[in-house]
């Protein structure tokens, strides 16, 4: 199921609407990826284009969305790197890359949504 445009925000840090959802500045403009399944988003405010996957674990993913989700779910359930690789049929290096990537995405989310005490 495709998410509505209101769920997205501009990814250009120099834009006045950066990180703000539901401002009416975004529209879908075309498709990307193999099979043209990834929507491209256009910001009317700053004229930037970006993928609907930007800022997520799926950004620049070469694996299918199902495989990436499966990797994350196995790790969440306590499977190690080798076991996850075997279960999902990917290399240990691939699992390690997604561990690192998901950690970076989680850290960015935390930094944007949690106020720090002085």
Describe this structure in words.
The chain is globular, with a radius of gyration of 16 Å. The N and C termini lie far apart (41 Å). A hairpin with a 5-residue loop joins strand 1 and strand 2 (38-43). It has helices at residues 65-76, 81-88, 92-113, and strands at residues 26-32, 38-43, 49-51. With 118 residues, the chain is an alpha+beta fold. A three-stranded antiparallel β-sheet has the order 1-2-3, with no helix packed on it. It is built from three helices and three strands, in the order E-E-E-H-H-H. Helix 1 (65-76) runs antiparallel to helix 2 (81-88) and helix 1 (65-76) crosses helix 3. The protein folds into two domains: 5-51; 65-112.
Summarize it.
The protein is of the alpha+beta class and 118 residues long.
Entry keywords:
single chain, alpha+beta, 3-stranded antiparallel sheet, 3 strands
Distance between the termini: 41 Å
Instruction: Kindly state the number of beta strands.
Output: 3
> Globular, elongated, flat, extended or rod-shaped: what is the shape?
globular
> What proportion of the residues is helical, as a percent range?
25-40%
Tell me the radius of gyration. 16 Å
Largest sheet: 3 strands, antiparallel
Give the DSSP E fraction (strand runs of 2 or more residues): 5-15%
- What's the number of domains? 2
Q: What is the typical, i.e. mean, pLDDT?
A: 89
Read across the widest sheet, the strand sequence of neighbours is 1-2-3
With helices defined by DSSP (H or I, 4 residues minimum), what is the helix count? 3
Order of helices and strands: EEEHHH
Uncertain regions: pLDDT < 50 for 5+ in a row? none
Structural class: alpha+beta
